[in-house]
Write a structure and sequence with these properties.
The complex is a heterodimer of chains A (543) and B (122). By secondary structure, chain A is of the alpha/beta class. Helix content of chain A is 50%, strand content 17%. In chain A, helix 4 links the parallel strand 4 and strand 5. Classes of the chains: A alpha/beta (543), B alpha/beta (122).
């Protein structure tokens, strides 16, 4: 069987002792009584009670001293103190009592109850103290984690003592300052949750302190205390950011309620601010994401356009195929129809021979176009092998030109070659270079109707140094290309803009690819005076 | 016999049409571009224009509608288009061409078409 908890009641009022003993005894507690402080301390030492119910006003040593002695006694560490006072009836006595305490902390009771004490209230406080290990403060709902910190600034020490006791007993952590300057210092050191401040103080007034702390961005709630009759100053204080006010003399319980409310309100405000800031961050984040998506969308759009450009390129390529393959085939078929025609009166041998020649030439051209098409598809499949080396221009050109002259047939075309006297060498693949030149010449010959001229020349590099490149120029007097057909289109650069411009045909496209494979460059244009011009920019061979 | 203007940029086809038309006894003048054809028409005297629809520069469709709006029925315009290009044929007719022939040609059919068209003019 466990011992019922022991409660010691120290009071000089015998009726009060009887009342409490009867009430708590009936509740099952072991109740002991003492009628003065000395007796009470002696009993406490021997009984080690769980709770001492202590009247503040006692004959001999008063409640504050008893409280302090109990706190100082290591044997009574487990003892909680419930102080009963008539705070509002004899304030002077209380102030006196506080002054007796050398160390403020030691005089602090666990709970303070005001007289007249309701027995129900007393019992609730006792039960609450017993249920907690050593007796937590219970006046207000006990804070769950850290205690709220209140800073009290007042030059009136009596006032400070009174408030300090009250707030401490209500579970606040209290810090005090007796001047405005000290208040500001404590504000930094103690970082309170709430501040209770007298307006009228020497040197630095409460208004000054308020002004300084608000300018610094200190936003803790501030309750100002004003004397009766100086409410107009309170208005000024509100303008400077005070949150609430108390007019002296005031009920300390009221002060605690107001302060507690303020702290709670401030906490709500803070969490609301945090929430707002978080929402703001989230919305910023969203905006960033939307922007990111927009960028992605633009990229997709670009890719889509590129694909569309590719299909446009394909369309052009196919239309070019129709021009390069279908047109000659159509010509051949038409001539064959003519040659088969028997309705003509008599045979015209000259006409027949001419038709045959045209069919032959056209079929030959068709064959070249098909070969070039296969060549081009090989390049685009990445199957072109380049064997770079030093090329002497002279022999290659002589060779190509003799081939071209043979394919001229009956056409009256003068082909002029201005030999390069410098014996310059270029860096490239001779086979590829031959293919380029044969096709460029063939293109010129095809465009020249009847008589015309083709002029080939190596232009010396512009300026000196390794950056300068020799250029082979081919000019002809043939009919002009449609200008749009000279815009290069390569599979690797399928920008939709250029794909729209047209397709230069299999042959010229092939030439361009071959040139680029060697790091050369081919520029095609129509001359204003008529005819075409091809500039083949080569890479010089460095010895 | 009729005077014919042939507007065609392909040399082989020029030779083809000239051969066939001349063997029929017509006189043929050739132009390689639409602009050249337009200039030759201004000299007058042409009854028939054989017009390739796909020419560099001034194309056949534009030239046909110019010819028809200036000369009306005085000049018969025959469009030459590639086979199976239905869209081109429709476009040729709506730009004012009186008839069309398709490449590659069948020489007997071509001859018959030209004769029928010239008969219709008389």
């Amino acid at each position: 069987m466990t011992q019922p908890p022991c409660i010691l009641v120290i009071d000089d009022d015998q009726s009060m002792l009887r009342l409490i003993r009867a009430h708590l005894g009936a509740a099952g507690y072991q109740v002991e009584t003492a009628s003065d402080g000395e007796e009470g301390l002696r009993l406490a030492e021997s009984l080690r009670p769980r709770i001492i119910i202590l009247d503040l006003l006692l004959p001999g040593i008063d409640g504050f001293v008893v409280c302090r002695r109990v706190r100082e006694n290591p044997n009574l560490k487990g003892t909680a103190i419930l102080m009963v006072t008539a705070v509002y009836l004899s304030e002077e006595d209380q102030i006196h009592g506080f002054r007796m305490g050398a160390d403020d902390y030691l005089v602090k009771p666990d709970v303070i109850l005001s007289k007249p004490v309701h027995l129900k209230e007393l019992r609730a406080a006792v039960e609450s103290l017993l249920s907690s290990e050593r007796g937590a403060p219970t006046g207000l709902p006990a804070p769950e984690q850290a205690r709220d910190k209140v800073l009290i600034v007042d030059d009136d020490e009596k006032n400070i003592r009174l408030l300090k006791m009250r707030f401490a007993s209500e579970g606040f952590e209290v810090c005090t300052a007796s001047s405005g300057q000290e208040g500001l210092e404590q504000l930094e050191a103690f970082s309170p949750d709430v501040m209770l401040m007298d307006l009228k103080m020497p040197t630095m007034s409460g208004l000054d302190v308020l002004k300084i702390m608000r300018e610094k961005g200190q936003d803790i709630p501030v309750v100002i205390m004003t004397a009766y009759g100086s409410e107009s100053i309170a208005v000024d204080a509100f303008k400077m950011g005070a949150d609430d006010y108390l007019v002296k003399p005031f009920d300390t319980a009221q002060a605690v309620r107001q302060v507690a409310q303020l702290v709670e309100r401030h906490r709500l405000k803070k969490s609301q601010e945090q929430l707002t800031a978080r929402l703001k961050r989230i919305s910023c984040d969203l905006v960033n994401r939307v922007n990111h998506l927009e960028v992605q969308n633009q990229k997709l759009e670009k890719a889509y356009n590129a694909v569309r450009g590719l299909s446009e390129f394909n369309r052009r390529f196919i239309s070019s195929l129709s021009q390069d393959l279908r047109a000659p085939l159509s010509t051949i078929l038409s001539f064959l129809s003519l040659m088969r025609d028997t309705s003509a009166k008599g045979r015209d041998f000259q006409r027949e021979r001419e038709a045959q020649e045209i069919v032959f030439k056209t079929a030959f051209r068709l064959e070249i176009n098909l070969a070039n098409l296969l060549y081009l598809s090989r390049i685009q499949a990445g199957a072109l092998s380049v064997a770079p080396g030093a090329i002497a221009l002279e022999p290659v050109l002589e060779n190509v030109l003799s081939l071209a002259r043979r394919s001229l047939g009956r056409q009256d075309i003068r082909v002029t070659w201005y030999p390069d006297q410098s014996g310059r060498m270029v860096e490239g693949d001779e086979v590829l270079m031959r293919d380029i030149l044969v096709n460029l010449l063939d293109d010129a010959i095809q465009r020249i109707e009847g008589a015309g001229e083709i002029v080939l020349e190596v232009l010396p590099p512009e300026g000196e140094g390794s950056g300068s490149k020799p250029v082979l120029r081919l000019r002809d007097t043939g009919s002009r290309h449609p200008d749009e057909d000279l815009v290069p289109v390569t599979v690797s650069e399928i920008a939709p803009e250029s794909a729209r411009e047209g397709f230069e045909g299999i042959r010229l496209n092939l030439c361009r690819h071959l040139a680029e494979a060697m790091g050369w460059r081919l520029v095609l244009s129509n001359r204003p005076t008529g005819g075409g011009e091809a500039l083949l920019e080569m890479v010089p061979h460095e010895l | 016999m009729a005077t014919v203007l042939l507007v065609e940029d392909n040399q082989a086809n020029q030779r083809l049409f000239r051969m066939v038309l001349e063997s029929m006894g017509h006189s043929v003048t050739c132009a390689c571009t639409g602009e050249e054809g337009w200039a030759l028409l201004a000299g007058g005297g042409f009854e028939l224009v054989l017009l390739d629809m796909h020419l560099p520069g001034l194309d056949g469709f534009t030239l046909a509608s110019r010819i028809k709006s200036l000369y009306g029925d005085a000049v018969t315009v025959i469009a030459v288009t590639a086979l199976a290009m239905e869209a081109d044929r429709q476009r040729a007719l709506s730009s004012g061409c009186d008839a069309f022939i398709t490449k590659p040609i069948s020489v007997p059919d071509f001859r018959a078409n030209i004769e029928a068209l010239l008969e219709g003019r008389r």
